[in-house]
Design a protein that fits this description.
This protein is of the alpha/beta class. It is built from 15 helices and 14 strands.
Length: 474
């Protein structure tokens, strides 16, 4: 690489000058694959790619858009000497550039401009780690990572960018369509979201929509209006309806559908005609309720074919049906493996114990009980957040340690991996190593893994195999 770059007209400093910014805006290189085009060009981890083909590199969308060919011209900032150099990379057809970036957005995340009454971030307890309070609402992360966004903070240039690059599908939190209801739910910027949604739909952008249903606000007649709007726009290809969740750290809400089975059933019955018409028209249900509604109403989950391939799985829609079907498949196909696990548990005198949230306990227990593994499922009540929070992914370390038994001798304890973030910490800041150490002191052999039937079965086998290994070979 050679040469230096003049000052940016966009306001970024001349990084070679006095008082210059230490790191310019751009994509921070997290890793470089050996013998790749980037490796051959001398790019190293820690460097910053500031431009691609002369265009400022602001996010992964720009990178994917401009680095799609067999050659690419880069401007690369080297923090070791605060210089920016240019280089050109070439690659063979089908070869990647060998670059891994630190994140998907490089110029700062777009934060939320709304004041949503149901915002979970506003219900968090004080003194948690700072990143948990960041309210992102970045349309780029909707396309890149599937985040739901409201569209209320998008400029016309942002809208043009989505349309030009056909960033489809987009995941959009709509919640309601009537201006007065939207304003009550989301604040004074709410109507901008509908304006942008209309522009995107008119331009052929596919949308997965979301409704957070709040009793007495956007249910009833307003829910009918909103679902009818979706029904009239075929590019809205899935609609996820999730119930209001709240913690004890707020004063707006004291109940939701989890406290009112009759109300949960009314929602199921209200949505059913929209689902039936959609199936008759398209062969897909389109309108899908989160698992909580069926649990709260004490109703069976719909069959798998009504989930249209689970387009909103990570919005809590279809997880239980998927788990139940996987359980049935394992019980039907893997009886010899299960019998071997039973025999090994008995021979090693080990008891199986699986942790879950209260909402999923019966579902997880169905696999543990029907597979006759002889273990138990311990549901952890979420005292840390309180309110109606009962899902597995929000289990906190303090509740886990407080509610698990003090004596766990001869217990193989399986913790759901989703309670830990990428830094191996729970929401309340406990590190996985510390939790494993504490539970180990109580006598447990601890494993962290997905607690779905297949993954759990495989991890139990691994743990039993490890225990069976001769000591000298460990």
């Amino acid at each position: 690489m050679s040469g230096t770059v003049p000052p940016y007209a966009t306001g970024r400093a001349d990084y070679g000058g006095e008082g210059a910014s230490a790191v310019p805006t751009g994509a921070v290189v997290a890793a470089v694959r050996e013998d790749s085009p980037a490796w051959d060009a001398g790019i190293e981890a820690g460097m910053v790619i500031t431009a691609v083909d002369g265009v400022a590199l602001t996010d992964m969308i720009e990178w994917l858009w401009h680095a799609d060919g067999d050659t690419v011209a880069l401007e690369v900032f080297d923090p070791s000497d605060a210089t920016t150099s240019t280089c050109e990379l070439e690659r063979f057809p089908g070869e990647d550039w060998g670059l891994e970036f630190d994140g998907a957005v490089f110029d700062g995340m777009r934060t939320c401009v709304n004041a949503c009454t149901f915002c979970f971030m506003s219900m968090l307890p004080p003194h948690m780690r700072g990143t948990l309070y960041i309210r992102d609402d970045d349309y780029r992360l909707s396309f890149l990572q599937g985040n739901f966004v409201t569209l209320t903070n998008m400029s016309e240039a942002d809208v043009a960018n989505v349309i030009e690059k056909q960033l489809s599908p987009m995941n959009v939190s709509v919640h309601a369509v009537s201006p007065e209801v939207r304003r009550r739910l989301m604040g004074r910027n709410a109507q901008r979201g509908m304006e942008v949604l209309e522009q995107l739909l008119d331009a052929g952008i596919e949308v997965h929509a979301q409704i957070v249903l709040c009793p007495g606000i956007n249910d009833g007649e307003e829910l009918d209006r909103t679902l009818t709007y979706f029904e009239e726009h075929p590019l809205i290809t899935s609609v996820g309806i999730v119930p209001l969740g709240y913690t004890r750290f707020q004063k707006r809400f004291t109940s939701s559908y989890s406290d009112d089975p009759a109300a949960a059933l009314r929602v199921i019955e209200q949505v059913a005609p929209f689902q039936a018409r959609a199936r008759a028209r398209t062969g897909r249900s389109i309108f899908q309720l989160s698992d909580e509604f069926y649990l709260d109403a004490n109703r069976s989950m719909p069959p798998a074919e009504e989930y249209d391939g689970y387009p909103q799985f990570y919005d809590g829609i279809g997880m239980i049906r998927s788990f139940l079907d996987e359980t049935d498949a394992v019980l039907a196909a893997d009886e010899p493996r299960l019998q071997n696990i039973r025999d090994e548990l008995a021979a090693r005198r080990k008891q199986l114990c699986v942790v879950s949230g209260c909402a999923a306990r019966e579902t997880v227990a169905r696999f543990v009980a029907h597979s006759a593994l002889g273990g138990e499922v311990i549901a952890i009540e979420n005292n840390y957040f309180g309110g109606n929070v009962d899902v597995t992914g929000l289990i906190c370390g303090c509740d886990l340690l407080e509610q698990l038994p003090a004596a766990l001798d001869d217990v193989m304890l399986f913790l759901p991996d989703i309670i830990f973030n990428a830094d191996a910490r729970t929401l309340d800041g406990y590190h996985r190593d510390d939790i494993e150490r504490e539970l180990g002191c109580r006598g447990a052999r601890v494993a962290v893994c997905p607690t779905t039937p297949v993954a759990l079965m495989e991890r139990i086998e691994d743990e039993l195999q490890y225990i069976a290994m001769p000591h000298e070979s460990l």
